[in-house]
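[INFO] parsing input record for YbaY family lipoprotein
[DEBUG] input buffer:
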Amino acid sequence: MPLRPFALSALLMLLAACSSQETQRPTAPVTFEEPPLATTPLHELHGSLIGVPADSEVELALLEVNRRDEPDRLLSNVRLKGRGTELPFILKFNADKFPKNQPVELRGRVTRSGQLIMRLPAVPVTSAASQSLGPLRLVPAP
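[DEBUG] output buffer:
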């Protein structure tokens, strides 16, 4: 039984020693790195499409166009599902890739069951800035 008081006093001394020790602090402040910001400036075209039938597929494309009015390069595109009502869209693109001396157009097509049924007449885009194109009306495909 003489060990019991000794063990109890040793435990109390150990607890007292632990509580009096100064906690270690890091020498340098801890800093959290911010995630890197996107270095490519993304801009957007937004608006809505009028006349998109329900159960159709819409593809909008921002295209660099050559002198013969043919697509030269795809700058951005987006696919949407028709709902039978006005269909809002947002098309993001890299402003650094926007050509300065070539025409750029927004073009669109609407398909149902793989058949082209409507199209968006070409909409000229003259600036790499974000912009609203407002409501755009689709026309029947020839």
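[INFO] The radius of gyration is 32 Å.
[INFO] shutting down worker
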